[in-house]
């Protein structure tokens, strides 16, 4: 299959102590280091090995195997750390070994098997050189350790005019992560937007077309970028080619640093891009969206 712009996905492959092979989006990885000396905090979560100091900053170190329900290692000095940065936070994932970096297509990533359940901690499955690779849902791992709830909306955050501008306006949110979808929906409900949600790009396209056919078009689409089968970039490209829904305002909402994605987002025709998760920033982005729509 020929790859198109935005369709390529770089994965860092690694193994847990059980030998299980997993992958993580390389864009979420800052570096790979030997596990440094750890300070063990008495009140730490049982899946947190401790806190390390990395270039003067504290780094929470997570026993990834235990965090996803497997047997962890007995010695933190074995293995290595994958230092990740996403959703405005940084942490170290303790794993047995790192293998290599591979390229695949988001179109070749399938959703998790239907029977995998809510504790699967994977966002998708693909094949690399004939081997099944499960892609880690790091957002879910972090949420299980420290549930993230959107901050309360300050009454003074938006003006009365801005609140009235948003009230009742039609928004569709697409995200393959239960956690991110719930966070976004909570904020949009507080803003009194008319909010619908779906879990895949294909479902988003179907809903956009269906609502347009019923004479009640979706005004703003808030879309994740990393999704199995069709990512956010490909979704925007597909929307822009459709005569009926092609003018939909699209805000790409990503766990990666949005500055990394701005140029690509603009190239595919997205209207705006934002890093998850900030209630304040999301509220302001939606005000910008509806101000531009009038």
From TrEMBL:
One Gene Ontology biological process: phosphorelay signal transduction system
Location of 4-aspartylphosphate modifications: 224
Pfam families the record matches: CheW (PF01584), Response_reg (PF00072)
Stored SUPFAM superfamilies: CheW-like, CheY-like
Record domain CheW-like: where: 8-147
UniProt keyword annotations, A-Z: Phosphoprotein
Protein name: Response regulator
Response regulatory domain mapped to chain residues: 170-291
